[in-house]
Write a structure and sequence with these properties.
3-stranded antiparallel sheet; Immunoglobulin-like; 3 helices
């Protein structure tokens, strides 16, 4: 295979790539791009627009690594498959089990780089006495405009019930021109900190 190959996957999810992915220059997960998908993909490949998408799921290295693997099939052919993953589904499983996916939830490359700074957590005056506002600055440090998706996770270091290592509780998407800085604010209510 030519090492300068860029593979474009039109699929609804992960496919088996582990045996060839290290031999290609790039991989674009196009999902189902629609009528103008070819144009959009060409614009990304030729650097006319910035790929700013983030994975909404984790992609496992091998199907056996997927948290649903042991529960996915119907071995008795009785049309009953039991959901036993509980809270450990997707990124929660990989983080908690310290298992490395091929591409984690929220992964996505860009033609620019973003820098985070000035993290601040302050009480937010609402009817919810436990609500806080988490704010920070994001700066586009590159030479091309692009979108960044900031993800905010919470971890419960102590809980009477089993909890994932961390849980996504908020996110914000912001488009930044080269050199631009913008403050992002995400509010977290009582339910974000509940350990039941």
């Amino acid at each position: 295979m030519n090492p300068k190959t860029i593979v474009v996957l039109n699929s609804g999810g992960n496919v088996a790539t582990s045996h060839w992915i290290s031999g290609v220059e790039g991989l674009i997960q196009a999902w189902y791009p629609g009528q103008e998908g070819g144009t959009a993909i060409a614009e990304i490949i030729f650097g006319l627009i910035n790929p700013s998408g983030k994975l909404p799921v984790s992609f496992e290295k091998h199907w056996e690594d997927n948290p649903a693997y042991n529960n996915y099939y119907d071995p008795n052919l009785d049309k009953h498959v039991f959901y036993t993953e509980g809270l450990l589904l997707g990124y929660r499983y990989y983080d908690t089990q310290n298992a490395e996916p091929l591409f984690p939830f929220g992964f996505g490359l860009s033609y620019t780089t973003f820098e985070y700074s000035n993290l601040s957590i302050t009480p937010f005056i609402t009817s919810d006495p436990n609500e806080v506002m988490v704010s920070f600055d994001i700066t586009n440090k590159g030479t091309m405009g692009g979108a960044e998706v900031a993800q905010l996770y919470i971890r419960q270091p102590e809980s009477r019930l089993m909890r994932p290592y961390k849980e996504l509780k908020g996110f914000a998407k912001v488009f930044l021109s080269p050199g631009e800085t913008r403050q992002v604010a995400i509010s977290l209510g009582s339910s974000s900190f509940c350990n039941r």
